[in-house]
Amino acid sequence: MQFKRAFKRTSLAVAIALGAMVVSLPVQAQTAADGVQRIRVRGTVGSLDGTTLTVKTREGETATVALKEGWQVSSVAKASVDDIKPGDFVGIASLPKADGGDGALEVVLFPAAMKGTGEGSYAWDLKPNSSMTNATVADAVKSVDGRTVTVKYQGKEKKISITDGTPIVTFAPATTADLTPGAVVFVPSEKAKDGTISSSRVVVGTNGVVPPM
What is 2-76+172-204's CATH topology? Predict the structure, then answer.
């Protein structure tokens, strides 16, 4: 499978670094005691000049991000709903459905080494009223237009439907050469009281696969 080939090409170190970043994101909507706000910058690369990254955000603004010493760049690789198996640890952004349960907006498959990290369900800002759930798949039932998974976390469970066409990704390596103008990026960042933005990690779209989170 494409997912398995992509995962084999990804070193464990890269997977853990990227996984740690993603699972920590749901709690980053809070403002720290020192006034630093955790934000997520989504958009396309304007330029990369040394350790200064400019991003044309999805809101239409230009964000200047100072990349911290030792910053990392990673990518995502396309996976399939058929890759989701009971026992897998996943991160799923979703929205409540009128008839109950949630509908997935995107799915991230974590490597086995990251199972249990950042477990829980949190408010998310991909879309209004969305949430991010990091949990273990209990079962995955096929349906007419996709699959419904039951995920368990912290003694709770949630049913999430994953319709055909929902973006599903896993982790992949990348280099600074991938941060070309127009490349889609997802940058978990910190915004200081003076408005400056900094980050230690960038997720960039490559080979036609963009960060869906």
Answer: OB fold (Dihydrolipoamide Acetyltransferase, E2P) (2.40.50)
- pLDDT tens for residues 155-181? 999 999 999 999 999 888 999 999 999
Beta strand segments in the chain, E: 37-49, 52-57, 62-78, 89-96, 102-109, 120-123, 131-143, 146-153, 156-163, 168-173, 184-191, 197-204
**Amino acid (one-letter) located at 49:** D
d(CA 86, CA 39): 32
CB 117 within 8 A of CB 23: yes
Q: How far is CA 128 from CA 27, 64, 96, 107, in A?
A: 16, 25, 11, 17
Q: How far is CA 115 from CA 81, 146, 188, in A?
A: 18, 24, 21
Q: Are 48 and 182 in contact (CB under 8 A)?
A: no
Q: What is the DSSP letter of 111?
A: P
